[in-house]
Amino acid sequence: MGATEVLPMKPAWTKLRTWLRRTRSAYQQVQAEGTRETLRRFRWVALSVVPIDLVLVWWFWRESGRLTVPNEVAWAVQLAWSNLVMVVLGVVLALLAELLLRRGRHATLALQVLLCLVYLAFTAACSLIDQQVTPSIITFVVGCMGTAVLSLMRPALALPIYGMALLAFYGLLPQFQADPLPLYSNRIQAVVAVALSILVSWVVWHQYVQAVLLRRQLTASHTALTVKQKELEFLADHDALTGLYNRREFMRRAAQELGRSQRHPAATHVVLVDLDHFKLVNDEHGHPAGDAVLQHTASLLQHGVRSTDLVGRLGGEEFILLLPQTGRDEALAVAEKLRALLAAQPVLWGSVQLQIYASFGVSGLAPGEQCEIDELYRAADAALYLAKHLGRNRVEYGEPQSRASAVSARAPATPPAAPPA
Predict the structure, then answer these.
(1) Which of 224-260 are b and which e, b meaning 16 or more Cβ less than 10 Å from the residue's Cβ?
(2) Which residues contact residue 64 at a Cβ distance below 8 angstroms, ignoring those fewer than 6 apart?
(3) How far apart are CA 343 and CA 355, in angstroms?
């Protein structure tokens, strides 16, 4: 037994590098949407907090008049001013975010970063002011956690923002807290709070990215399914190569049109078109050339008739047209025009011009006459056979065999009984 070949395994650092590259790419794709969502969140939070801040401003100003200890008075006044400044900044930033969102402009990361820094600076300032009356830094901790939850930022942005907030708070804390033990405790709490906030920020951001990417995949899948469904619906009624009605759909619509012409008497005609010597095109130039000829023919036929006329492909090189409200002479003129149009516009296939000739068979009904679409098809097919027999590249007319006038069709089968004497 031969030795089993062992495939080399990718080193762990290679897998990690690939994961990091994919993750960074996904983060960059979602950041713009995350920034807009952040602005929406901060906008509503800012407007919701304004009444609370105004109440705090009033309360701290009232307390500053009641307190007698100097450091407590300074504490109340400073918090009152801090909350008042935050009200003004919050309203301005909320209005700016609203302006960008309403005008549909691309939300910039600069505004998102500014919002985060403002809220972190406000909570840090409140915690530093609180050191005059209490060693707690709960306001800064809550601010860090709240910013981590509200602001959707990839780690490349969250790390420097929280890093700057920690450095500033860590450096200014000794100026507001002189007691070594609370100072040491608060610094440890600040470091832990920032570290946890960065972790929470990354978790919230990563979950948001996964949700956005999943939503985009679902939207793309739904769009693809919708397009596929429309394609299938189109192919159910149309020929895939030419885009014309297929045989089944053409016959269904033609039967409806004949029924309409019987209710409102009008002449209706059918035209059969069969390309002459089409097999030679496939044999000499290949089936792609034949497909090009069929598509060119379909385009000329469709653009050579009225928008109310029906054009379909029966199969192979055979086409069919229904001309509502069209008399015999008009139908023959239309067929002759189409025959000349096909002959005058060859298909350019590479350096070769493929000449198109076709035979036409026409049949129809005068106003007041009626018959089934199958009978008109048989009559037009007989006329087409005659055109082929007489030399091709010509138009012939055939009368339907079984047709009746609308009056005779509505006449009773037996005479009514005579009234009693």
Answers:
(1) eeeeeeeeeeeeeebbeebebbbeebbbebbeebbee
(2) 73, 76, 77, 80
(3) 7
Helix (H) or strand (E) holding 403: none
β-partners of residue 311 are 321
Alpha helices per DSSP H over 103-179: 109-130, 138-150, 155-176
The whole-angstrom separation of Cα 311 and Cα 335 is 13
Take residue 262 and report the two structure tokens written for it: 């019987």
- Tokens representing residue 24 in the block: 């960074």
Q: pLDDT value at position 8?
A: 54
Answer for the pair 93, 118: CB distance below 8 angstroms, yes or no: yes
Q: Return the pLDDT at 90.
A: 87
User: What number of residues does the chain have?
Assistant: 421
**Per-residue pLDDT tens over the stretch 179-205:** 999 999 999 999 999 999 999 999 999
Query: Which pairing describes strands 347-349 and 318-324: parallel, antiparallel, or unpaired?
Result: unpaired
Taking the alpha carbons of 85, 90, 95, 100 in that order, is the dihedral positive or negative?
A: positive
As given in the structure block, the two tokens for residue 28 are 């960059």
Amino acid residing at 40: R
Q: What pLDDT band is residue 261 in, cutting at 50, 70 and 90?
A: confident
Rounded distance between C-alpha atoms, residue 311 and residue 294, angstroms: 13
CA gap 40, 34 in Å, rounded: 10
With H, G, I as helix, E, B as strand and everything else as coil, classify residue 8. Answer: coil
pTM of model > 0.70: no
Is the distance from CB of 164 to CB of 113 less than 8 angstroms? no
What whole-number distance in Å separates Cα of residue 284 and Cα of residue 247? 28
Rounded to whole angstroms, the Cα distance separating 268 from 308 reads 12
Predicted pLDDT at 156: 86
Find the farthest-apart pair of alpha carbons in the chain and give their distance in angstroms, rounded: 132
Which pLDDT tens digit goes with each residue over 352-395? Answer: 999 999 999 999 999 988 889 999 999 999 999 999 999 999 99
More confident residue, 28 or 161: 161
359-369: string of b/e by CB count within 10 Å (b at 16+)?
bbbbbbbeebb
Q: String of b and e for 312-334 (b: at least 16 CB within 10 Å)?
A: bbbeebbbbbbbbbbbbeebbeb
